[in-house]
Design a protein that fits this description.
about 170 residues, about 55% helix, single chain, alpha+beta, 2 domains, 6 helices, about 15% strand
Length: about 170
């Protein structure tokens, strides 16, 4: 039940109502799909896992101290942990992007929020990037899978409007 709720919240944030509904009905298959998605981003997951674990344990302890543990206590702690982890991931992504950009001699990044990336990627046809920079005449895009910049061919079109500017 608790894992089903966590997977439900994950897919609801991804704005995938069918997968969220499946989680409300059955846990195992959609949950394994969420875990599989997370393993593709192993480096980022491993960076965020300590924050998530500590947050979950603190929230669970607080909920148990405030009132006797109910059947929904762990579910509520998991849902709130996911929200906190997404917030931490936003700041972590900014730090990682800036570190990689500064290593290349770039001080300004055009980026979407982490929540935007979680909601919009991956898609089959995607014309927006998580973030991009222009360095020495080359366009570079951000990869959460590699936690680094990759070169974008000149033939590839992507929408350059709607990004936030981040100064490193």
């Amino acid at each position: 039940m608790h894992l089903s709720l966590l997977a439900f919240v994950y897919f609801a944030f991804r704005v995938e109502p069918l997968m969220a509904l499946l989680n409300a009905l059955t846990a195992p298959a959609p949950l394994w799909m969420a875990i599989r998605d997370g393993m593709e981003f192993r480096q980022l997951v491993l960076l965020l896992l300590p924050y998530a674990a500590v947050t979950f344990l603190i929230l669970l302890a607080i909920f148990c101290l405030l009132s006797p543990a109910k059947y929904w206590t762990a579910s509520l702690a998991m849902a709130l942990t996911l929200l906190v982890t997404i917030s931490v991931a936003e700041d972590t992504s900014k730090i990682l992007m800036c570190q990689a950009a500064v290593d290349r001699g770039v001080s300004e990044i055009s980026r979407h929020s982490f929540y935007w990336s979680l909601r919009n990627a991956p898609k089959d046809y995607q014309f927006d990037l998580h973030a991009y920079v222009v360095h020495n005449g080359k366009r570079l895009g951000w990869s959460y899978r590699d936690l680094n910049w990759y070169e974008i061919s000149e033939e590839v079109y992507f929408e350059q409007a709607g990004y936030q500017t981040l100064d490193c």
